Amino acid sequence: METIINTANGIAAKAVQMARPKVVAAYPITPQTVVVEAIAKHVETGELDAEFICVESEHSAMAATIAASATGVRTFTATSSHGLLLMHEMVHWAALARLPVVMVNVNRTVGPGWNIWADNNDSMSQRDTGWMQVHCASNQEVFDSIIQAYKLAEDGRVQLPIMVNYDGFILSHTSMPVDIPSQAEIDAFLPERVPCWSIDPKNPVSHGNLVPPEYYMEHRASMQNAHMAAKELFPKLANEWKEKFGIYHGGLIEDYKLDGAEYVIVTLGTLGAEAKVSVDELRKAGHKVGLARIRMFRPFPAEEILRIAKGRKSLVVIDRNISPGYEGVTFTETKSVLYGNSNVPVYGYIAGLGGRDVTYKHIIDIAMEAVNGKASPDVTKWWGLKENEVIS
Amino acid sequence: MAIKDMPREELLLPGNAACPGCPASVALRVILKALGENTVLTIPACCTAVIQSLYPKTSFKIPVLNMAFETAAVSASGIKAGLRMQGKDDVNVVAWAGDGGTYDIGLQALSGALERGTDFIYICYNNEMYSNTGVQRSGATPYGASTTTSWSGKTEHRKDLMGIVRAHNIPYAATACVAYPEDLYNKVKKAMSMRGPKFIEILAPCPPGWHFDMSKTIEVGRNAVQAGAWALYEVENGKTTFNGPSKAILEKKVPLKPIEDWIRDQGRFKQLFKPKRDEARIAELQAQMERDWDKYRRIVAGECAEL
Question: Which of A7, A38, B103, B195 has its CA 20 to 30 A from that of B204?
Answer without folding.
Answer: B195
